[in-house]
Specification:
rod-shaped
Amino acid sequence: MNKRRKREEGFSLIEILIAMVILGIMLMTLISVFIYGYNVLSRTRQVALATQICQEEVERIRNLDFASILTMGTTFTNDKLPSLSNGQGILALESSVGDDIKKLTVSVTWTYRGQTLRKDIVTLITKLGVNKK
């Protein structure tokens, strides 16, 4: 009886191998979740930065007089654009309802993992300015 008890104590090689396989699968899953989370966080930071750049440009343009807005170019620069890979600022001014109202689209494009991403902010600009009647 003593011999039998000694054999039953401890783990067999098969039990240890099964435990190692289960632990390996769990670690691989956990590592892939961390990598996915890091990628999502990285992309979210870039989208937030692009949004901030667009908003700053919209606010800068809103402070200009209407005649200056009509003569703007189709691109803009910002100190934060180089933080985005191949970051470019694009402006598009379109006629809207009439000559006194223009539709302004401020866009930032950049490259993320081989994809070209774009963030747009659209606003209307009037000849009278913001909040004026």
